[in-house]
Design goal:
The chain is α/β, with parallel strands linked by helices. The protein has one domain: Alpha/Beta hydrolase fold, catalytic domain (Rossmann fold, 3-Layer(aba) Sandwich), CATH 3.40.50.1820. The chain is about 40% helix and about 15% strand. A nine-stranded mixed β-sheet has the order 1-2-3-5-4-6-7-8-9. Helix 1 packs antiparallel against helix 2 and helix 3 crosses helix 4. The two termini are about 35 Å apart. The N terminus is likely disordered.
Length: about 400
């Protein structure tokens, strides 16, 4: 296997995709800000609410469209060997980004946030959070199983242990590549940064590195932002509140958990026909843009999308699915049973760890990091940063800005 491929050999049509996504954003903005309020039965939305919608659309555009600075970095698509959830060997892909204008300050293993389309896979396009670090740091960014060269496979969503293994395998594989570049930095000393799904993956990756690879890779510091560390409690809270800010996550979590652990279940048992139709039409092949998915899912009520048995923990099939969610949880406190069924890992982080979470996060509920803190409250190497930093996308920008400033002081 060759060590890397140039970007031109494995690139998507960036300009076409950018124009198409920009068009979708404009159409969706018109719908959200003007047409939906006009035809809604509710009273007219006040000007301040309309402005909030416009601001959120702008933030979404920043994250979704991402940034580009091709002249400042050298991008390479890496193909590397790893293993899947069954222990079988497979080839995965990811992006290696190296600054061109000056010597890099270090190496960052960047674990990306949740994506729905393969166009957003790092091997196709640098994720939006990469632009905060790409001019100063070497970035190693895995695609995860289900994206890039494995796009035909189902993504085992939130299987943190597996994602960590895939991330570590890419980091180990790129070490000799970076050594050959003579960048003047140690290739066995890294930072780990991740937000949302990437925040949980960052924690799982830190654990794997400290438990199995401490003699090969030293983690200077890990930055975990708004991660679903307690996937089972995230499910519990969604059921209790009957609310999901991004309903598209629901089928991804169900199908991904079934795939991750080989469960003898199917989406149709848990999801009503409307949700199954959205998944199979817009999401299964990972070839549709985000905006049509959002507009096809108008309700935020979980009960609108799931079947009664899919929401009933007393049903055997739902219990089996919940068991998968527990296995995907780094930690767990059962919020429905007053912490009777609690899970704290035997592992304690050794590297300096920065944990960020907005207390009013609308996508990954704060309960995830609150439970993480209950497990590690006495660990002095952890810096907890909790506050009202806005909803999920808005808080992501706050997290990245904070991390960028902290790295400047390193």
């Amino acid at each position: 296997m060759q060590r890397y491929y140039k970007k031109s050999e494995y690139a998507n049509k960036n300009l076409v995709n950018f124009a198409k996504k920009l068009l979708y954003i404009c159409i969706y903005a018109i719908f959200v800000v003007y047409l939906q309020p006009k035809y809604a039965t509710k009273p007219k939305i006040p000007p301040n609410k309309t402005m909030k919608r416009i601001i959120m659309m702008a933030l979404l555009a920043v994250v979704w469209l991402g940034g580009s600075a091709a002249e400042k970095i050298q991008e390479r698509v890496i193909l590397y060997p790893s293993t899947d959830q069954n222990g079988d060997t497979l080839t995965l892909s990811g992006k290696l980004s190296v600054p061109t204008k000056k010597n890099p300050k270090g190496i960052i293993l960047l674990t990306h946030y949740t994506i729905c389309t393969n166009d957003e896979a790092p091997s196709n396009k640098l994720p939006a959070d990469a632009k905060y670090f790409m001019e100063d740091y070497v970035l190693v960014i895995p695609d995860y199983i289900g994206y890039g060269v494995t796009v035909e496979r189902t993504h085992p969503y939130l299987h943190g242990e597996l994602a960590a293994r895939n991330c570590v395998d890419m980091m180990l594989y790129t070490q000799p590549i970076l050594d050959s570049m003579a960048l003047g930095i140690p290739t066995d000393s890294i930072y780990i940064i991740g937000f949302s799904q990437g925040g949980a993956t960052a924690m799982w990756t830190l654990r794997l590195l400290e438990e199995e690879y401490a003699d090969r890779i030293h983690v200077k510091k890990c930055f975990a932002g708004s991660g679903p560390h307690d996937v089972a409690s995230t499910y519990d809270e969604a059921m209790l509140k009957d609310y999901a800010s991004v309903p598209a996550i629901i089928p991804m979590l169900i199908v991904g958990t079934i795939e991750a652990y080989g469960l003898n279940l199917n989406l149709e048992y848990f999801a009503n026909p409307a949700l199954c139709n959205v998944y199979h039409k817009y999401m299964e092949k990972k070839d549709r843009d985000m905006m049509p998915i959002y507009t096809a899912m108008p309700s935020h009520k979980v009960s609108y999308w799931l079947t009664p048995q899919g929401m009933d923990r007393s049903q055997l099939e739902t219990q089996v699915l919940y068991g998968g969610l527990l296995r995907s949880s780094l930690i767990h406190y059962n919020i429905c049973k007053q912490d009777i069924d609690s899970i704290c890992p035997e592992w304690t982080p050794k590297a300096p760890l920065y944990v960020f979470h907005s207390t009013n996060d609308d996508l990954v509920p704060f309960v995830n990091s609150a439970h993480l803190q209950r497990c590690y409250a006495d660990v002095e190497t952890i810096h907890w940063d909790f506050g009202k930093y806005g909803k999920h996308v808005q808080s992501m920008l706050k997290f990245l800005s904070k991390v960028q400033k902290m790295l400047e002081k390193e």
